[in-house]
Amino acid sequence: MPSRKIISSLLFFICLQTSFSIVSAQNIDAYPSNWFANMNYNKVQVLLRSTSSDFTKASVQVNYPGVALNNTQHFENGHYIALDIEISPTAKPGNIVFSIVNGGKTSIFNWPLLPRRKNRGTQFAQGLTSADLVYFLMPDRFSNGDSTNDKIPGLKDQSLNRSEIFLRHGGDLQGVANHLDYLQKLGTTTLWMTPVVENDMPDRTEHGYAATNNYKTETRFGGDKAYLALSDSLHKRGMKLIQDVVYNHFGRFHFLVQDAPAKDWVHQWPTYTQTHYREQAVFDPYHSEADAKRMIDGWFTTEMPDINHENPMVEQYLTQNAIWSVETFGVDAFRVDTYKYCNVDVMNRLNKTLLDEYPKIFTFGECWVDGVASQAYYVENNYNLPFKSNLKATSDFSLLFGGIMPALNESNGWSNGVIKLYNTLASDYLYKQANNNVTFLDNHDMTRIHSSLGESIPKTKMAYAWLYTCRGIPQLYYGSELLMKGISNPDGWVRLDFPGGWAGDKKNAFTETGLTNDESDFLHYVQTLGAFRTKSSALKTGNMMQYIPEDGLYVYFRYDNNQTVMCVMNTDTKSRNVNLSKYGERTNLFKSGKDIITGNIIGSEFSIPSMSMQVIELIK
Questions:
Q1: pLDDT of residue 325
Q2: Which residue of 95, 285, 459, 464 has the fewest CB atoms within a 10 Å radius of its CB?
Q3: Cis omega before residue 32 (within 30°)?
Q4: pLDDT at 19
């Protein structure tokens, strides 16, 4: 007959097993999934989600040295509890145990407190400067490095067809990691990819801008492990990582939409209301409040519900996710999608919190707006207005559409052609740091530059020479360095596969197999620009001086104490003569120069052909 002590032990073991089985049955998830010791941001809100419909009725206790549970919040949706915990500097890494009591039963949930990353600001969270050059790509369309993750059972979109522009093609993060050498040959220092978080939508998942879980890397890209490995590979090469984030909206199948803790996590309207996309309604001194509300609170599309930034819990969720991403994956900078549709006061607070934790972190926003004045409103500027943005930079749409595009596509006149490029740059006085702006020629939403310029190779060469030499942080879009073409109606045509990214591709840009002579020549042209910029202090961090264009001839200089680079752009229909003495403020110490593309020495007087650009390193 078993002893009373053995029976008691067996009963305790059975009860313990029962309580642990509740945890398994409830399938509790935490957001954030963990935190880090010794962080400045030490008051963390942990959102617990369970499959149990009465989970929110539970009480929670925390017993961990240096960790205090300050508050527990409950929701109308029974699946959620929010824990406001405070982590003191004395708290050591380990598993913080949440004891969850519900219906007389106790379950245990372990929430990891991890050591924080080392070498902040030197090996991660480094930020960006004008010395960087960004390569922007779509992982699904760049290269397939692991065919085993092309389809993942259970995800809604099971498409895989490279011949269809709106379906998945199978590219992934391993494919990107395999070709970092190629990026560096272009002068690339920094990688930016379209969002890599989970995108479990029914279709159009190739772009990633409809997140369904901000704390999970897309498994079809290789998941968290592949993302961390790519980040490590970049940093070992001295390169940087930009994470593309979306604060404006979730994907319609995000769990915070399909199973929201409360109705006020996304903006609700009596009937579907879409933003009108006109940013003027935000800062127009005569604006209507109804117009301003629709601009910010209206949904981007039916598939992208608008996030309610006015809900403090939502703001904290987004802020913590940004910090968690930096600490988990070693992110160096953020690009924020659809920035102009966000609540800018909330964005300011989020930006400040990131900078408090990571003083070198750099954030730039997508502010697709009309004109420099509107664009400057969203970044650090010299305006005397009630609202002052702390955003470091924006993608420079104004310089693209109001500058280089008309310079190369319009006939020259008093207010047309290359003078628009000059005038747009002359408005840089509106910015605190115009050199922070990210300059570009095309991206995943717009017609590729070669198509925008009528497939003119001379014009496209001019565009790239300008991009590599103008002020700002230049950004390339994958494949355009190969003269890839595409009109953005529909956008799938500007998101085609990078040649050579898939086994069996007849054309391979990585090995330069199967390229046409024009493609090969243009690639080498861009690589030459990249090699020069990599070593040029004047282009990376120097000053800029521009001269008023005359009859389509536009001259500007990049210079510092060690180097002067003269950039001559001839947008006229005939060749033009250039004399260094005309630009004496910058040339009086120099007698000649070297064309950085050809290596030819250029004298104090020279002729430049029509529709061409020369980049000349001046020689004393």
A1: 98
A2: 285
A3: yes
A4: 38
Beta bridge partners of 362: 333
H or E element, residue 399: helix 397-399
Pick the closest to residue 583 from 604, 562, 611 (CA basis): 604
* Contact status, residue 70 vs residue 83, Cβ threshold 8 Å: no
By DSSP bridging, strand 553-559 and strand 59-62 are: unpaired
Q: Write down the pLDDT at residue 8.
A: 39
- Separation CA 469–CA 450 (nearest Å): 19
Q: Are strands 564-570 and 576-579 parallel, antiparallel or unpaired?
A: unpaired
Q: Which of 204, 214, 197 is nearest to 169 (CA)?
A: 204
Closest CA to 422 of 555, 240, 598: 555
Tokens of 568: 């001559």
CA distance 389 to 352: 10
Burial code (b: 16+ CB inside 10 Å, e: under 16) for 301-312 equals eebbbbbbbebe
Q: Determine the Cα–Cα distance for residues 63 and 69; give it in Å rounded to an integer.
A: 9
Cβ atoms 156, 201 nearer than 8 A: yes
Residues found in the chain = 620
Residue 26: its pLDDT value, please? Answer: 52
Q: How far is CA 465 from each of CA 187, 364, 378, 595, 613, rounded to the nearest angstrom? A: 13, 23, 28, 12, 7
CA distances from 133 to 170, 274, 359, 442, 446 (A): 27, 35, 21, 15, 20
Classify each residue of 272-293 as buried b or exposed e, where b means 16 or more C-beta atoms within 10 Å of its C-beta: eeebeeebbbbbeeeeeeeeee
Residue 251 corresponds to which amino acid?
A: G
Residue ranges of alpha helices (H) inside 72-120 are none
The contacts found for 231-235 with CB under 8 angstroms, 24 or more apart, are 231/124, 231/329, 231/330, 231/331, 232/330, 233/177, 233/180, 234/180, 234/191, 235/123, 235/124, 235/330
Distance, in Å, from the CA atom of 398 to the CA atom of 434, rounded to the nearest integer, reads 12
- Could you say which residues of the chain have pLDDT below 50? 1-25
DSSP E strands in 250-351: the ranges are 333-337
DSSP label of 48 = E
